[in-house]
């Protein structure tokens, strides 16, 4: 009837608050939809891109204003910590981290940076989500995008459209890198869950 | 054992308020980003006018709304965490007290569970249902609990614990002397 040990037996991993979970799955859905499902360049693609940027912005605000494991200070980017974590993984030691583990933290920052590049270049090409610009008669058609917003394009000629093409190139390369990083992220979570015997997906779904 | 029982019968759902706040914040953030994007595009293509100034004010209000919403969310989470901690501390203390008493009265494991459920307010039929036992068995176990603790009723049993919670130790008496004040086992 002592019953004290079972309370402390299992050290708690990170508990993700609702805002972290919401932005995580929101961004995941947006990246998968825009990267793999929705036709690029269309109005829906642009709306989803804006929504993803909103989720990213909210998550970044939360990194400063939030609590506990959601704060940037709970998972500072550190190469040396990541190396230490890697050698822990290889030698079979497991430490419980109250936020992202050091390798996961690096991945988080990489994903955010790549998402920022993708959304920024996307928005630079598409303009406002609320009102199509003059010259965008075909909605947010890729032709209009590549031509630059054509009033300007007519004046500046080749320079504008070259800039547009560069934007599009960066957008596509960054989007592919983002998908690659996301795949690595999923692989890393699976590997870490397997090695540590702790399901890392559940806290992101249910909180703890 | 008590802690396990307590977890089984007093698990409280939570976090609904936080989830709702997070959803509202997400909607606000989307609106803010759409409006800021629209304002920036308007400035780029149409130049500034009164309409745009108003739009910019709306966008700014939305952004501020997100920032203050995030701070509000932080306060809500911190408050919830604080009350969780306080509650679990109080629960832990209460459980320690109950455990100490039950041990002092030398209750059997079955009597312990029945006494615990009785303290939580379950009646004989409910306890019998939870334990899969006959009502007569539970009644007999409760009678032994009352006898061992020197009380005549469930109300008296409860008052043994309420007394400690409300009044605390009598002045001049060392707090560790609780056990000395127990009715004879």
UniProtKB/TrEMBL annotation, chain A:
Main location: membrane
Cellular location(s): Cell membrane
The keyword Transmembrane belongs to this UniProt entry's keyword annotation: yes
Any Pfam family hit: Ni_hydr_CYTB
Protein topology in the membrane: Multi-pass membrane protein
Domain (Cytochrome b561 bacterial/Ni-hydrogenase) ranges: 15-207
InterPro entries: Cyt_b561_bac/Ni-Hgenase, Di-haem_cyt_TM, Hydrogenase_cytochrome
Highest taxon, organism lineage: Bacteria
Protein keywords: Cell membrane, Membrane, Transmembrane, Transmembrane helix
Transmembrane segments: 19-38, 44-62, 103-126
Protein name: Cytochrome b561 bacterial/Ni-hydrogenase domain-containing protein
UniProtKB/TrEMBL annotation, chain B:
Signal peptide range: none
Residues spanning the membrane: 20-40, 52-71
Domain HTH luxR-type: 104-161
Superkingdom to which the source organism belongs: Bacteria
Key words of the record: Membrane, Transmembrane, Transmembrane helix
Gene3D superfamilies the record matches: Winged helix-like DNA-binding domain superfamily/Winged helix DNA-binding domain
Name the record gives this protein: Helix-turn-helix transcriptional regulator
Species annotation: Paralimibaculum aggregatum
